[in-house]
Amino acid sequence: MSIHHAYKTCLLAGLMALSAQLTGCAANTPALDARFGDAVRAARQSQTLYPEASANKDPVLGLDGKSAVTAITNYQSQDKAPAQTGLIVNLGSSSGQ
Q1: Angle, alpha carbons 6-11-13 (nearest 5°)
Q2: In the chain, N or C terminus with fewer CB closer than 10 Å?
Q3: H-helix or E-strand containing 10?
Q4: What span, in angstroms and rounded, lies between the C-alpha atoms of 71 and 77?
Q5: CA–CA separation, 64 vs 71, rounded Å?
Q6: Phi, psi dihedral angles at 88 (to 5 degrees)
Q7: Are 35 and 42 in contact (CB under 8 A)?
């Protein structure tokens, strides 16, 4: 038996073993795929306060247009202004006594 023939035999045996392993993995996949995304859907549903909110066509009441524009403008300009850092004072220390 030549080395070339032994190499082909080992390669063929390896490919057959690999295909058997992959077939075993594929057999379990439909059971997992049937429940794919259930955890995300359950979490989203449990965090939704009012699921039928999109059916409500009444306008939101509360702010007139001018006040709403001012509020949005102030909100958006908060990111542009640098954060003010204050003086840090050490109010307590541990001196070991």
Answers
A1: 95
A2: C
A3: helix 3-33
A4: 10
A5: 11
A6: -95, 120
A7: no
Q: Please, how many CA atoms are within 13 Å of residue 76, restricted to the half-sphere of its CB?
A: 6
Q: Residue 20: is its pLDDT beyond 80?
A: no
Tokens matching residue 57: 């066509």
For the chain, give me the number of helices (H) and strands (E)? 3, 0
Quote the Cα angle for 11-15-20, to 5°. 150
As a whole number of angstroms, the distance between CA 86 and CA 91 comes to 14
pTM of the model: 0.32
d(CA 15, CA 29): 21
Do the Cβ atoms of 28 and 34 come closer than 8 Å?
no
Q: How far apart are CA 22 and CA 62, in angstroms?
A: 61
